[in-house]
């Protein structure tokens, strides 16, 4: 007896230690881990890095352009003498050096507008990254609540199985005592097997929900995940409806939703790019300067000796400075075509912004309608659970006294289980809907650092 007691104590200590040692995950922790390890998010961040470099380079384009040049030529046979420009028939080599510099003084403000456009596009890519983070967070939140739903169904299935097991044992004793016919055992056993199958299905669905969250988080090497207990508010049965102002939620969402901010930035950037395209229609003015020299084997002095390298480099030097004016006259209408194309891009950017605003309005409209409906369903389903639980309790007592058949008990039991399932589903849909609505209302649902 002592050995049996020791084994039982050791078993419970082992299970308790494993449960204690296992890491538990909150919703914020799941979201943070998913954002840190999501591979698809990296692609948007790479686009952000690329646009940042484009923005930086657009500012560097204001700097002067400086280029150096050198060459080495070995001539064989007939060639023009660089010294006298006379055709000679001898082998010689020549070496040239040059350094040129230029800076744009006026270019139709193309570079200034290009800087502004690239900055806007870079900021839009920052918002794209934030948008993807929020979309990922919503997928994680849905998977998180799915686990809680199937976890609740698993508990309900276990309770239903225990009831069927107790009734099966009761029927067996009553048959042994001659209080019931042997056929009643088969009916009770059929109900027990049905609930065992329901429990197995609930376990499978629970495992699938866990796998979905693990995959969304990219949690490598794990097949199960333990979530923090779900503490929900006390469910009331009052049928009051909370009034949510749609315009207020929409205006709050418009001020911070990343995809809206990104499309607004792209619409402004398209207008700056139009200014860049129009700059090609104007003349451009540049300040240019240069220095050149060279060494030629055909340069000889009066004594017939090739002039030394250092002396030639000094004597052959040439310098220049000046202004270069480029006036576009006709280029196959390419500049005007780019202007027309950019005007179309402005229309496309404006349409994309209108489309995103419309979709946001429709999403919030649907959320508010669902919130109102779910709030009523939550109270009604709570009442239904209470009523079905009372009906089942009465049916169970009458069944124990032999006043009702197993079919009547089964019907009451199934109605009670269905009411519990519906109530659990409505509750979790309500909390998911409320969290989403709170997000669009600007409340801190996710612990995600947003760009300013």
Describe the protein.
With 452 residues, this protein is α+β, with helices and mostly antiparallel strands. The protein folds into two domains: 22-63 and 108-282 and 333-440, Outer membrane efflux proteins (OEP), CATH 1.20.1600; 64-106 and 284-327, Single Sheet (Outer membrane efflux proteins (OEP)), CATH 2.20.200. It is built from ten helices and eight strands. A hairpin with a 6-residue loop joins strand 3 and strand 4.
Brief account:
The chain is an alpha+beta fold. 65% of the residues lie in helices and 13% in strands. The protein folds into two domains: 22-63 and 108-282 and 333-440, Outer membrane efflux proteins (OEP) (Up-down Bundle), CATH 1.20.1600; 64-106 and 284-327, Outer membrane efflux proteins (OEP), CATH 2.20.200.
What's the CATH C level of the largest domain? Mainly Alpha
Rg (CA only): 40 Å
Identify the CATH architecture of the largest domain: Up-down Bundle
Largest beta sheet: what is the strand line-up? 2-5-7-8
Mean pLDDT: 86
Strand residue content: 5-15%
The parts where pLDDT drops under 50 for at least 5 residues are: 1-21, 233-239
Number of strands: 8
How many domains in all? 2
- Main sheet summary: 4 strands, antiparallel
Q: Helix segment count?
A: 10
Give the % helix. Answer: 55-70%
Per CATH, what is the topology of the largest domain?
Answer: Outer membrane efflux proteins (OEP)
Basic shape:
elongated
């Amino acid at each position: 007896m002592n050995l049996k007691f020791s084994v039982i104590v050791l078993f419970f200590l082992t299970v308790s230690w494993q449960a204690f040692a296992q890491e538990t995950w909150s919703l914020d922790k799941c979201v943070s881990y998913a954002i840190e390890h999501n591979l698809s998010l990296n692609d948007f961040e790479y686009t952000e890095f690329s646009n940042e470099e484009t923005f930086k380079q657009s500012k560097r384009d204001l700097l002067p352009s400086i280029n150096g040049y050198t060459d080495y030529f070995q001539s064989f046979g007939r060639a023009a003498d660089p010294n006298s420009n006379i055709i000679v028939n001898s082998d010689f080599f020549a070496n040239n050096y040059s350094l040129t510099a230029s800076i744009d003084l006026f270019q139709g403000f193309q570079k200034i507008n290009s800087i502004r456009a690239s900055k806007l596009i870079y900021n839009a890519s920052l918002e794209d990254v934030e948008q993807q983070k929020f979309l990922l967070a919503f997928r994680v939140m849905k998977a998180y609540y799915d686990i809680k739903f199937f976890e609740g169904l698993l508990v309900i299935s276990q309770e239903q199985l225990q009831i069927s097991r107790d009734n099966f044992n009761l029927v067996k004793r009553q048959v042994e005592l001659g209080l019931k016919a042997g056929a009643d055992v088969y009916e009770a056993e059929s109900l027990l097997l049905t609930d065992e199958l329901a429990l197995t299905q609930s376990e499978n669905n629970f495992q699938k929900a866990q796998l979905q969250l693990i995959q969304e988080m990219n949690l490598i090497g794990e097949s199960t995940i333990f979530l923090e207990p779900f503490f929900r508010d006390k469910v009331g049965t009052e049928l009051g409806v909370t009034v949510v102002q749609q315009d207020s939620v929409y205006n709050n969402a418009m001020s911070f939703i990343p995809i809206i901010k990104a499309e607004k930035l792209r619409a402004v950037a398209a207008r700056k790019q139009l200014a860049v395209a129009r700059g090609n229609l104007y003349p451009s003015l540049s300040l240019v300067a240069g220095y050149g020299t060279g060494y030629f084997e055909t340069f000889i002095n009066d004594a017939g000796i090739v002039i030394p390298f250092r002396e030639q480099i000094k004597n052959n030097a040439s310098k220049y400075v000046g202004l270069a004016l480029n006036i576009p006259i006709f280029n196959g209408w390419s500049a005007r075509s780019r202007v027309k194309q950019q005007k179309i891009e402005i229309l496309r950017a404006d349409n994309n912004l209108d489309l995103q605003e419309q979709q946001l309005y429709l999403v919030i409209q649907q959320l508010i309608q669902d919130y109102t409906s779910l709030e009523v369903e939550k109270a009604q389903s709570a009442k239904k659970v209470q009523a079905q639980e009372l009906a089942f309790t009465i049916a169970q007592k009458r069944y124990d006294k032999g006043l009702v058949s197993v079919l009547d008990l089964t019907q009451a039991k199934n109605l009670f289980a269905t009411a519990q399932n519906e109530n659990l589903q409505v509750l979790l849909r309500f909390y998911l809907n409320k969290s989403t609505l709170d997000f669009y209302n600007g409340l801190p649902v996710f612990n995600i650092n947003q760009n300013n």
